Every structure is written in C-alpha cells, then in structure tokens.
Amino acid sequence: MKRNIVIATVAAAALIGGGTATAIAVAGDDEAPAKKTVTVSNDDNDRDDAQDTDDTAQDRAEDKAEDKAEDQAARDTDEDAEDKAENAADAKAAQITAADAIEAALKHTSGTAVSADLDDEGTTYVWDVDVLTGGGAWHSVQIDPSTGKVLGSHTEKDDDGDDAAETAQIRDALKGSSVTAAEAAKAAAAKGTVTSVDLDEESRDKAWEVDTTAANGTGSDWRVALDTGKVTADRTND
C-alpha cells in the first residue's frame, strides 16, 4: 500500500530571513505525524550587520580625529606661561557666561548684540557688551561677571565719523543670519570658557569670532558660522 506524504512548512518567513522552521510529515491515517525541524542561517544578514557596525565605528573615529585636528588648529601655540596664567585668571572670573552677559545686556538695552568682551578693569573684571539699536545708535553695556547685574551703560560717540559706514557693513553682514552672538557663545562654550565674542563683518566668509580658554589657560580662536552655528578653528591669521 502506497503512503501519501504531505509536508506542511511552518514559519516560511524564518527560512527566508534566517531562523527555524518546522515541517510535519503525515504518513497515512493511522500513524502519528512526524515533525522535523530545519534551521536556516542567513549569512548575508550577519555580514550586513557586521559591516554596519564597522562603518559606525569608523565614522566615530573619523569625527573624533576631525575634532582633535580642529582643536589643535585653534590653539594659540605661541603662548608662554605668563599668558596662560592670565588667561586662566580671566576664565575664572567669568562666573557669568558670555551668553548670559549678552542676554542681560539686551534686557537692559534692546537691539542687536555685536560683541561681548571680558575686560580687565584694573583690579576687577567686567563684561562689556556692544549693542546696536534699531535706530542705529551704539550702546556699551557693562555686566558684572560674578552676578550678571548691569553695572552701567553709555552711548558711544562717533568720534572718527565712520560709525555710519561700520553700522551699514554690520547690518549687511547680519542680513539673513540665524545665529546671534549669544548663540555663537553657547556653541563655542563646548571648547572652553568663552572670554570674547565679536562679529567679523569684513572677511569674505563673515562669521562670529570667539575666543575660549581651557582649564590650563591655553587660549583658542574659533569661528562660528552665521547661518549654521558650526564651530571651526579660526585660521584667518595662519
């Protein structure tokens, strides 16, 4: 008597993607079905996963190497021990960040912050923030770097008669810009303590110029793009 054997494949998707499937063989009406388990390994998927992992690790290594190169290019390599000590003292005095100082100045005087510098006023430090108002007037606002309070402000006089031309140049540089001075300071803060932010409106690739100081007093110069906020080493003096 001939036997009719029917094989039903269960979990076909497992065979396609790699996995385990069970086939049932039926031999006649009186016999119990026999099960057979088949395991299929998808080597292509394993190789793809390994390749993805390698690519990710390589990307991370390349990004790390690029950041290291940028950091090296931004450092002031000709600084001596005295300069580093002075830089470290400046950074220590900046308990209020450059970004916070700028925001405090703008609350006091509305307009556009164009620069912020941590100045040494003899025995004390002060954040000096230059603000350009909508009417074209220049205001210098002083911020206490330890408390963030406004110490004073004054309108700057056009002694040399070139404020109008400079103002027009600055407004043109900032036209279409999406990155403010405060945002540039925040972006560069990842590189160290920001001690200065200033708009470079004269270069071909206009940007925010930012000075930072590391914990050991090493100063670095950065440029922050006006449209993307990307931070790169300042090579304009190379």
UniProtKB/TrEMBL annotation:
Residues 1-23 form the signal peptide. Gene3D superfamilies: 3.10.450.40. Residues 57-76 have a biased composition (Basic and acidic residues). Residues 28-93, 190-221 are annotated as: Disordered. Pfam families: PepSY. The keyword Signal applies. The keyword Signal applies. Residues 43-56 have a biased composition (Acidic residues). It comes from the Bacteria. Residues 96-153, 180-234 form the PepSY domain. Keywords: Signal. This is PepSY domain-containing protein. The lineage of its organism: Bacteria, Bacillati, Actinomycetota, Actinomycetes, Kitasatosporales.
